[in-house]
Specification:
single chain, mainly alpha, two-stranded antiparallel ribbon, 5% strand
Length: 436
Amino acid sequence: MSSASTTAGSLLQRMAGWFGGLPGKAAEVLPVRVGGTEYRQTTSTPASVLGFDQALLWVVVALLSWGLVMVYSASIAMPGNPRFANYAPTHFLTRHAFYLVMGFVAALLAFQVPMRVWERVAPWLFAASLVLLAAVLLPGVGKVVNGARRWLTLGPIGFQPSEVAKFAVLIYAADYMVRKMEVKERFFRAVLPMGAALAVVGVLLLAEPDMGAFMVVAVIAMGILFLGGVNARMFFLIVAILLAAFALMIVSSPWRRERVFAYLDPFSEQHALGKGYQLSHALIAFGRGEIFGVGLGGSVEKLHWLPEAHTDFLMAVIGEEFGLVGVLVLIVLFLWMTRRIMHIGRQAIALDRVFAGLVAQGVAIWMGFQAFINMGVNLGALPTKGLTLPLMSYGGSAILMNLVAIAVVLRVDYENKLLMRGSGRAPTSRKRGGAA
């Protein structure tokens, strides 16, 4: 494994060099804590500090590999359903593997892009995401699936602009906070413009409708505002407004209210065959799994009982086949990954790379929050919401953007360590004025 890690590290470092690395003279000596050990920028810096975070990479690879196996396990019986009668047993496996290859290529390309470039194109990326979100609502352009218009058709595959919006809002919010750093204590100059931008995204997402994606986008933006140093009173005011808005959406929508009632009592006669059907069978799957599970491939719920077993409810199949032990391992992997990414972000901020640090921490919020929501839904702790398990569930656009986000985090870590080594200078965040 060490040989493979060295090879992967060399490949990504060489590809990063195609962009000229990080030009400039060596930075000042800065003490930085890496992996619990304090290092200084000297000629004797250990080789393990250089390159990128290989431990994070291998955890991501483990989640991707486990997800590939579980997508196959959860979808292998689907051709028995008349809706998928023309599909081969390996249909979803091969497509998911193809998405992983596409995601890996996109991640390699994203890793080559210096953080200063992401900072420069942030407003344009945000504008492009708004165009895509608007395009999906146009008749004849957006694809309708199960009553929701969330996909753009690109040849044989469908693409969800909401996944691009998550990444675009993340990059834009980090750039926005850097630009507003000097006025972050003023509500109308610092917070209100970002709130307006978030409202536009929310209107477009809710028109699809995709309340789950809007929740993730809102949490990402609010998390970056908080970490960027927005006044606490203003922050909690915005949180209260968002909570009130989400509550109003639920109260004003009969089918959303029905989901909440079904979550409260999924096994009732009224909900067991309706809005509570998925949740009740997910809970049955966890119950069958007990401590050690029924074994890989032994799930009964995936045999046409549990809808969307290979996407939103993949964790229920994991719980049935691997039991409590498998679920705990999965939770620990996501907790470790989120904590590691957050650490990379804090390290970048300690090196006066505010934009890069906020981007990394935004990715941690994205992965951690979406995994938390998906797990909570599967375990019956939260109302049913159409959010996939990051890096694992079947879905091309989600996998693609998840891997791009991870690649950007690895780029942040690479530039951090290059700065510590002293062979180059990572560009500091710009402090400029301007409108949102």
